[in-house]
Design brief:
2 domains; 3 helices; OB fold (Dihydrolipoamide Acetyltransferase, E2P); 136 residues; five-stranded antiparallel β-sheet; alpha+beta
């Protein structure tokens, strides 16, 4: 996803961009932009000479889909397997239902940990400034 907008604020390598309202955006049909509450936080990793008021192009980082799927799905599956196996190991006389319940508990715990870790990531890492379109 590539968007253009005016630079509103610069804090070190972090740039806050107000997207162009005239740009076509099928994601929200420009409803967020029209309210004036939408900003894009991007990283200037190329060290471009950006100043406030300039029009820049920002691009969402390309993250492989397989990597995202594995990062989201593998920990809960491993959590269930660990919970089920540990219950069988430490309590061999436990019924299969108890082992499955402990597996489900570990599954939700692992999913919650993944959720917390991914929600703590900086939003600035999602977008990068790719080029300066106009200079003021």
């Amino acid at each position: 996803m590539t968007e253009t907008g005016k630079v509103r604020e610069i804090k070190g390598n972090t740039v806050i961009v107000v997207p162009d309202i005239s740009a076509v955006c099928f994601g929200c049909m420009n409803q967020e932009c029209k309210t004036g509450s939408r900003f894009i936080t991007a990283e200037n990793i190329s060290a471009l000479p950006i100043e406030t008021g300039q029009t820049v192009e920002v691009k969402a980082r390309d993250i492989p889909l397989l990597g995202q799927a594995l990062a989201a799905l593998l920990p809960p599956v491993m959590g269930f397997t660990a919970g089920f196996s540990l219950t069988r190991f430490f309590f061999p006389e436990a019924a299969e239902g108890a082992a499955a319940a402990m597996g489900v508990l570990f599954l939700f715990t692992a999913a919650f940990i993944v959720y917390k870790k991914t929600s703590e990531k900086s939003a600035a890492k999602a977008f990068t400034v790719t080029k300066i379109i106009t200079r003021e």
